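hey so u asked for the seq, here:
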Amino acid sequence: MSTFVTILLLFNVLLSAALGLLFLRLWRVQHRLHGRLQQLAPNLAGDPARNFELVSASRPSLISIEILNPMELAAKESWVAGALGSVTPTLVRRLVYQRAAQMVREELKGHGVTAEVRQHHAP
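ran it, structure tokens below
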């Protein structure tokens, strides 16, 4: 019995050491990313359209759409979405934006417009 306890204790010590090393490694990566974010933060403040131009000067124009009533639209589309809106509003909002992007993509394609339709989420 004492051999089993010794092996179990040794296993726990090794596992704890491995987890400690993984934690340290992730902490270092997080620290480096945080430093990089602090370097980039001054360039990303303000108007999202301006930020897009900062990142991509070859694309000078941008159309932005903000849906002001996503819960109402979800409730119109489906009673399930209306019910989920009170429980998980973030998920419903994301689904409404995905559907809107799909609709815009299809409409533009129907008019012969070649466009890149993307969703941008706030952090």
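DSSP finds five helices and no strands in the chain. The mean pLDDT is 82.
lmk if thats what u needed
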